[in-house]
Design brief:
Farnesyl Diphosphate Synthase, magnesium (chains A, B), Isoprenoid_synthase_dom_sf (chains A, B), 1% strand, mainly alpha, Polyprenyl_synt (chains A, B), 2 strands, homodimer, 2 domains, globular, 333 residues
Chain lengths: 333, 333
């Protein structure tokens, strides 16, 4: 690794190392998001796909496949599959959350309408489905079908768990797996499967993706109560205003006094939020060390992700994946 | 066939003939719509799945497989798959169309909310995907992936074509294939594929489903301008109020005088609809024989569906499928 490379973020190093593959992925994405008859589809998709997203999930698939010595063409299909599923999920999420901004830009549901977001999301799901069928691997299809079901179930669970103070860390983990970790772990696992890697390596890739995804989401939850708008593209307190039971809140609620519980019931369950409530919520989380404890959990998951990599071949990509796990939690360390 | 059976509608005869298989399908549907963690999912799904729908699509799959001599278990999986895809599509459609009634009952988006309809629809798509992977047939997966893409593309196309007088019969056919025929043809085709029927029979099953679906949709369009609410579960003129370019309207617009075009532009493109406009639209369609011409098209598609059946084995199910094609168009004959 050159000195220049060493100074780059792990994500950028992955991008540089996999630049050729990533170009093929981008070409495939552009080709498959086209629709001869319904120009609304590429319009809406381009808005999201070309919004400068980090392409983290397709990079994970490419890295996993290459790390396991894959030399065929289908890791590109799988990387595009994973990005399409992710984009489709974002489109539907923004409808469900009534979001107005994503990655610092207006959301598709705001620029077009909810109808377009729902239907173009469905279209991208079906396109991702076609791409994975092209790999001819039933095992890959099985993994992605199960990931899709976990994602959808997690989203519905989040819908009902939001606003419910009875949500505990077990439910939280299920929601997070659906929201983030299921696609991360499917992304890494299918990379190993398409490379026909030994079973212990495939399992290790699954574990890495799962733990990385959970760490990633906990960090996201933490930043919502402390990150600056420009770094995360959303406003501090968005989760609070949407009455989401994120990890720091769950930890604070678990230790709340009777008076504090009354506060949480009012702002989260009843949704009766007033001036100063966000600050009060943050003070309660600080009082019970909820932010600290959530941070420790994130570090634990990152450590688990790194430990899983030991089963994989020694390779520059393995080092980058390890650094990536550190980097994800460095935002809150 | 007994006299009693002869008096039954073809759809009921199919149900009776395939009752054992259909029981297995219903059991599988109930099993797979369950969700341990998100009770909202079976609630919403049961509302639709148990609303007394005709189960026409799963019956087509079962009939196609049995007609081709299938003796294995996977036609049941495929029939459940097709019903899940259909139900998911209905959930998303009702959000997109802002519908308040479906099969004479309030829609899920009205009883719960749009969020639940979007996410439970996604969940059912992913469950259908798991079911089809279980068949282990890549060809079946390919057919259903392509059908999903056609469905989604057709829905987006309908969204943009809906208020555009330039929509011609070619675009209409693409919308109808997406809306109805793609799932009908996939339903029959996968039945033949799972039975490992010869290629000409698989093609015939595809053609039958495609033509039946198109006939079905044209009849639906016609009934919207003339059926009674109690038979179709929606109100006369719903399509008109939603400014949909259905076949009779397209035919009337194609023959419109300048003055008539101004009327269509106002009511369909601008959406400026007043008292008496529905009656005026129906008078214009009558003047140009648009209803008659659309009816003739529907009869033509039904005839094509029946003709395709000639390639299939002589079997009581084949006769029922033939009668079904007649029955679909009998509603407007």
């Amino acid at each position: 690794m050159s000195l220049d490379e060493a100074a780059m973020k792990p994500h950028d190093r992955l991008s540089a190392h996999l630049a050729g593959d990533m170009e093929s992925v981008n070409a495939l994405i552009r080709e498959r998001m086209a629709s001869e008859h319904a120009p609304r589809i590429p319009e809406v998709t381009a808005h999201l796909v070309e919004a400068g997203g980090k392409r983290l999930r397709p990079l994970l698939t490419l890295a996993a496949a290459r790390l396991c010595g894959y030399g065929g063409p289908y890791h590109v299909h799988l990387a595009a599959t994973v990005e399409f599923i992710h984009t489709a999920t974002l489109l539907h999420d923004d409808v469900v959350d009534e979001s107005k901004q994503r990655r610092g830009r207006p959301t598709a549901n705001l620029l077009w309408d909810n109808k377009s977001s729902v239907l173009v999301g469905d279209y991208l799901f079906s396109r991702s489905f076609q791409l994975m069928v092209e790999t001819g691997s039933l095992r890959v299809l099985d993994i992605l079908a199960n990931a899709s079901a976990t994602i959808a179930e997690g989203e519905v669970l989040q819908l009902t768990a939001a606003q419910d103070l009875a949500t505990d860390e077990g439910v939280y983990l299920k929601v997070v797996r659906g929201k983030t970790a299921a696609l991360f772990s499917a992304a890494t696992e299918v990379g190993g499967v398409i490379a026909e890697a030994p079973e212990d390596q495939v399992r290790a890739l699954y574990t890495y993706g799962d733990a990385l995804g959970i760490a990633f989401q906990i960090v996201d939850d933490l930043l919502d109560y402390g990150g600056a708008t420009e770094t995360i593209g959303k406003n501090v307190g968005d989760d609070f205003r949407e009455r989401k039971l994120t990890l720091p809140v769950i930890k604070a609620v678990a230790q709340a006094s009777e008076e504090e519980r009354a506060f949480w019931r009012r702002v989260i369950e009843k949704g009766d939020q007033r001036e100063g409530d966000l600050e009060q919520a943050m003070a309660l989380m600080a009082r019970h060390g909820a932010m600290e404890a959530a941070r420790a959990d994130a570090l634990g998951w990152a450590a688990r992700a790194k430990a899983a990599l030991a089963a994989l071949p020694d390779h520059p990509l393995r080092a980058m994946l390890s650094d990536l796990a550190d980097f994800v939690v460095a935002r809150v360390s």
